[in-house]
Design goal:
By secondary structure, this protein is an all-alpha fold. It has a domain of 86 residues. Helices cover 65% and strands 0% of the residues. Helix 3 runs antiparallel to helix 4. The relative contact order is 0.14.
């Protein structure tokens, strides 16, 4: 008779008062471990302007300086919102673009002044 009671779910042993509370547990999403490492649009804009600053710094330096300043501002504002490698790369590229633009501008000013001093610039302009 004991076997019939256990067969129909009646347990007379020590676990007769066991309650399964896991059936009502709600699903918990895993924690978001990305934190503040998400890239925002200003960081990407800063990186793009920084790369353009490096590439255009040889054009008399002025476009490189302009793109560098715009990229620096975008990267700084973007990094204040969230930190990521893209924002840091934008800062670095913008600073390099500004330095190269200033160096190119100084070089071209020096070259034009030197050519004017030796009279070569007047000769070129009169020949046109």
């Amino acid at each position: 008779m004991d076997n019939n009671n256990n067969q129909y779910g009646q347990n007379n042993g020590q676990y007769s008062n066991y309650q399964d509370y896991t059936a009502n547990a709600s699903y918990q999403a895993p924690p978001d471990d990305r934190g503040g490492k998400r890239t925002n649009g200003l960081q990407i804009a800063g990186l793009v302007c920084g790369i353009l600053a490096i590439c255009t710094s040889c054009c008399y330096g002025i476009p490189g300086i302009i793109f560098g300043i715009i990229g620096l501002i975008c990267a700084i504002i973007g990094n204040n919102r969230s930190k990521s490698g893209v924002g840091t790369a934008g800062l670095v590229c913008s600073i390099i673009g500004i330095v190269l633009g200033v160096a190119a501008l100084i070089y071209y000013i020096w070259a034009i002044a030197y050519l004017n001093e030796i009279g070569y610039l007047d000769m070129i302009l009169q020949g046109m």
